[in-house]
Amino acid sequence: MSRQDTEDFGVGNLSEKSRMLPSLPPYDMDDQLLPRERRSTWCCLAWTLLVATMNLLVFLMNLLLMFVIFTIVLLPTIVVVYFGFQCHSQVLHSAAHYCKSFLDDNSSSALIILGFVIMSPLIVVAMAIYCSLARRLRLFLCFQPYSRAVYKGVKWCWYEEGGLCSCARGWNTQVKAWV
Predict the structure, then answer these.
(1) What stretches pass through the bilayer (predicted)?
(2) S-S: 99 plus which of 34, 87, 120, 173, CB 3.0-4.6 Å?
(3) Structural domain boundaries of the chain?
(4) How do residues 148-169 score in pLDDT, each as one tens digit?
(5) DSSP string computed for 72-118
(6) Which tens digits make up the pLDDT trace of 94-153?
(7) How far apart are CA 42 and CA 38, in angstroms?
């Protein structure tokens, strides 16, 4: 910018002190980025173990939820492939009544192929259900950053948002995702 352009904006009238401040300070004391007090070594270690344990529990809960959803959604594929492999003469060749009377090698092969063909769309459906549920319950906001262990006075995310994993707040029904 030329000198004429800066004079049009009134930059020439600012003092040296006002040029050092890039913006106005926040009014709320919680929003200010003041240097925080570090914890002692043992306290930091204890808080690190607490934060790591909480994050591990949240990870395991997410993993369990994903396992349950995928198991329920992929149950038809699991059943079809199981019966296909059980009744095929080259794999298990079960002596069960339904294998002898209903399923021969050709129909067992057809069940195996059908099971693997319907697996792809069901995986997409299961992932969409899990992502929708995780977004609605805000499960990924339950993970806590390491700075909770290092510095004193850092609030927990679930405390700021109104409950554990922000579930206490009303659900936002305006957000929609198309899969």
Answers:
(1) 63-85, 110-131
(2) 87
(3) 71-125, 138-168
(4) 777 776 665 554 554 454 444 5
(5) HHTHHHHHHHHHHHHH-TTTT----HHHHHT--HHHHHHHHHHHHHH
(6) 788 888 888 888 888 999 999 999 999 999 999 999 999 988 888 888 877 777 777 776
(7) 12
pTM above 0.70, yes or no: no
Angstrom distance (rounded) from CA 178 to CA 17: 51
For the purposes of burial, counting CB atoms within 10 Å of the CB of 108, is it exposed (0-12), middle (13-18) or buried (19 or more)? buried
CA distances 172 to 26, 134, 137, Å, are 28, 13, 10
Pairwise CA distance, residues 6 & 19, whole Å? 13
Provide the token pair at 27.
């009014």
Percentages helix, strand, coil for the chain, rounded to the nearest 5? 65, 0, 35
